[in-house]
Amino acid sequence: MTTEIQVSESSQLPKSRIEPLPPYNPHLERRAPPQAPDVLTTVYNFPSMEPSRFAFYPATHLNLPLRRDILHRAVIFEGDATRKGLASTKWRDEVHGSGRKIRPQKGLGKARLGDKKSPMLKGGGVAFGPHPRDFSTKLPRKIYDLAWRTALSYRYKKGELIVLENRFDLEMDEPRWLAQIMKWHQLGHKNGGCVVVARRERANLFQAFAKSALGKTKQGMIKTEEDVDVKDLLKLGKLMIEKRSLDSLLKNHSSDLNRTVPTAVYT
After folding, report:
1. Higher pLDDT, 256 or 134
2. All residues at 6 or more sequence positions from 240 whose CB lies less than 8 Å from its CB, including other chains
3. Do the bridges between strand 51-57 and strand 39-44 make them parallel or antiparallel, or are there none, so unpaired?
4. Nearest-angstrom CA–CA distance, 97 and 94
5. Burial code of 101-139, b = ≥16 C-beta within 10 A, e = fewer?
6. 3-state secondary structure of 232
7. Which residues share a beta bridge with 161?
8. How far apart are CA 136 and CA 142, in angstroms?
9. How far, in Å, CA of 251 to CA of 243, rounded?
10. Which residues fall within 8 angstroms of residue 23, CB to CB, at 6 or more apart?
11. Which residues pair with 195 in a beta bridge?
12. Of all helices (H) and strands (E), which one includes residue 31?
């Protein structure tokens, strides 16, 4: 038995409101995504901290929204990569000694026991102990690159990113001279300290930071471009970075940026 459903003419949409679909075009054009306005940064001279010029960067580099989840994944990824995993113990078959049974199985009224390498005895093996292993985890390259630019954008939006001219250095490697400079510009340990990122190692500047770390007035930390990571960018109060290093980091960590987005254009 079948039932028929009758649809009234009033419930149907008028034909004038039904728009026909555009014809299918197999050749899709590639349209560039809308461009966001560039961000402006000031480049300073060190150690005078006088403005020298302006620099413009794309909004996809220094104006990204804060993503705590991505930063957390990047920091965990870097932390897991630094774990060595060298803890090692010996199981009963790895302990040196005889495999002779200590006492008979029955007749003494004591618990049954095997050889002297048993985990229950002193000097025996360790049950379920740690062994050398690899703690490193995996993270997609595009997510890691996005974390780099997110960290730099977070610093830039908070006004904690200071871009320095190329090849900056100190006149002497005296830590007291460095402490006076940091105190005058409110970059010292009383203001949260600063992280300095240089393109290459500068003799006087790196030596002054190393001497200040041994004393009571640690001004912050300094690293080269090759040694810095996402976790270092988020440390301390300010981030001072050489312009060439900033350009190189943004260039090397932009794999997730799709220059051309394929969109369907109907003609």
Report:
1. 134
2. 46, 162, 164, 187, 194, 195, 196, 197
3. antiparallel
4. 9
5. eeeeeeeeeeeeebebbeeeeeebbeeeeeeeeeeeeeb
6. helix
7. 239
8. 18
9. 12
10. 266
11. 221, 239
12. strand 30-31
State the DSSP H helix or E strand holding residue 195, giving kind and residue range, or none if neither.
strand 194-198
Q: What is the pLDDT of residues 29-83, one digit of tens each?
A: 556 666 777 889 999 999 888 999 999 999 999 999 999 999 999 999 999 999 9
167 pLDDT tier (thresholds 50, 70, 90): confident
Name the helix (H) or strand (E) containing 198.
strand 194-198
**Phi, psi torsion values for 169, nearest 5 degrees:** -165, 170
Two tokens, residue 69 = 């989840």
The structure tokens 């030596």 sit at 207
| Tokens read off for 1 | 């038995």
- DSSP assignment letter at 64: P
Cβ partners under 8 Å of residue 135, min gap 6: 80, 83, 85
In this structure, what token pair is assigned to residue 46? 């060190």
What does the chain come to in residues? 267
